[in-house]
Design goal:
- The chain has 205 residues and is an all-alpha fold.
- It is built from 10 helices and no strands.
- The radius of gyration is 17 Å and the shape is elongated.
- It is found in: Cell membrane.
- This is DedA family protein.
- It is a multi-pass membrane protein.
Length: 205
């Protein structure tokens, strides 16, 4: 049990992930952006804190390398999710609920997709859980390859560009911010919780 708790902490603790290096960061981003069983992994605040750690010099890679690596991980991750939905959508829809899969996540994403249409692929980048399931649902709906690839690139560029760049320049100009990592995480969690609860209440209504 202790080993499981330790593994869970390492997978969900952004600071631990970032200090492990860019390779681990990109793997987490890849998984969280399209693998249905990885929806619980950190997303928004992982990107922002990666920028902060890059700006303060904890991560040695230049901003361009951070942006390119994370962008590719996000885009490829979503594309894998799209392929899973397109070719295995029926079996996924018939899959019983388990520890890492809940049909309610897919259904709430469908509501989001119906509301925003194709732009859901861009907007969902900034919403946890929905971000993971939107490309899968796009695949299930057989959204054209051209539209998916275009919106995937646009959404990935905006998501990674805004969060990583903002964190980088904040860390560069205010290096002391690295001492307040826990407050940054709490802020993002508060925003995330508010967004998810608001969407849940709308869905119930």
């Amino acid at each position: 049990m202790d080993e499981i708790n330790l593994l869970w902490h390492q997978l969900t603790d952004s600071e631990t992930i970032i200090r492990s290096g860019l390779m681990v960061i990109t793997l987490i981003v890849f998984a969280e952006n399209g693998l249905f069983f990885a929806f619980f992994l950190p997303g928004d605040y992982l990107l922002f804190l990666t920028g902060v750690f890059g700006g303060t010099g904890v991560l040695k890679e230049p901003l361009s390398s951070l942006l390119l690596s994370i962008f590719l991980a996000a885009v490829i991750g979503s594309f894998v999710g799209y392929l899973v939905g397109r070719f295995f959508g029926k079996s996924l829809m018939n899959r019983p609920d388990g520890w890492f899969f809940k049909k309610k996540h897919l259904e709430s994403t469908r509501e989001f997709f119906d509301k925003y249409g194709f732009m859901a692929l861009v907007i969902s980048r900034f919403l946890p859980i929905v971000r993971t399931f939107t490309p899968i649902l796009a695949g299930i709906s057989h959204l054209s390859w051209y539209k998916f690839i275009l919106l995937n690139l646009v959404g990935g560029a905006l998501w990674v560009g805004i969060l990583v760049t903002a964190g980088f320049y904040l860390g560069q100009n205010f290096p002391g911010i690295i001492n307040y990592v826990q407050y940054i995480i709490l802020f993002f969690l508060a925003v995330t919780t508010f967004t998810v609860v608001k969407g849940y209440l709308k869905l119930r209504k």
